[in-house]
Amino acid sequence: MKPVLFTPAYLAQCYSSSYAEAQQKFKEHTCNQLNHSFYQEFTYRETGPNGEPLITAVSWQGDVDAACVLVLQSATHGVEGFAGSAIQIDCLQTLTRETLPAGVAVLYIHAINPYGFAWLRRVNEDGVDLNRNFVDFKQPLPHNTGYEQLASNILPAKLSDWEGATQKLNDYRDEFGQQAFELAVSGGQYQFADGLFYGGTQPSQSRVNLEQIIVDFELQKRQSVAVIDIHSGLGPFAYGEVICDHPPGSIGVKRARQWYGDSVTEPALGSSTSVPKQGLIDYHWHQQLAERVCFVTLEFGTYSIEQMFEVLRKDHFLHRKTVDWFAHETQQIKHEIRRIFYPGTTDWQEMVLMRGRQCVHQALYGLSN
Ligand SMILES: [Zn+2]
Description:
Layout: H1 8-14, H2 19-32, E1 36-47, E2 53-61, E3 68-74, H3 81-94, E4 104-110, H4 114-118, H5 145-154, H6 162-176, H7 178-186, H8 205-216, E5 224-237, E6 240-243, H9 251-260, H10 281-289, E7 293-301, H11 305-318, H12 328-341, H13 346-368
Parallel strand pairs: 3-4, 3-5, 5-7
Antiparallel strand pairs: 1-2, 2-4, 6-7
Helix pairs in contact: 2-3, 3-13, 5-6, 5-7, 6-7, 9-13, 11-12
């Protein structure tokens, strides 16, 4: 008999094959919880490809007056929501009043970018990368010279130019190096609205909702808050990297290392698979809660970054025009983007849940001490 860590039935209970299924499961498991205290929905003006409503669901587990709070967030990058949603649903089933330390509650933010999750995109309804959207729009926006140089090759005007454009991207990488290439493409840009890693021109609806959640749950008044924002697509297959974007040497970094151990990486120091980026959600939390928050990104690896950039280029090319969801070409690209961010194999699913549980328990223990 094959060794089984999680039964196929349990994996099927946690993982969903669409946003709509994930939302339904999250709601069901929240309402089944004996010790859940609160459930709230934020709705969006758009709908999913099958007309389904788009919702960010928020649930609170444990004492409403808890001094310390663990925030678990999924689908910042839409299509990456399969992993995060599964970890949240696993936690809803495994964390109970007995396993939650005294004085610690859990706040679940399910599908903060429901449009991207439903339409299988990294970006939101306006083509905006939520994790580049947290800049001060009253100030001059950051300028990304590298992206500007590469923009017409990242998204060529015609499909027939694709191979030549890809060759020019490779030439840039060969000339300036892998890190400079990744910074140019994925560091964040505020110039090309149809492009990749675009931060937008104003706070997105998801950002407004998230800011409201921080206020509604009085997170600024808590003694200590741990945020785990769950992503996928970067790094070794199924490995969960704990990425910390607090400033090097800060209390936030020290706390992350204390809680999650020496596997914590820092983009600012070059120790992460992620390069430093503009407009991260992290920065808003750092600003609002200062030394009382420890924010980490839990990033699960899938395939290579080349494959990821390629499918993102194809997806953005597709969405330049109104998308016919059921067209063969659309379905082909959506199948591929889903696979690149959510391989969905049993080993990948198991490793994600195991690492998710480990990090959640590390955070709960850290908060309670
Ligand atoms: Zn991501």
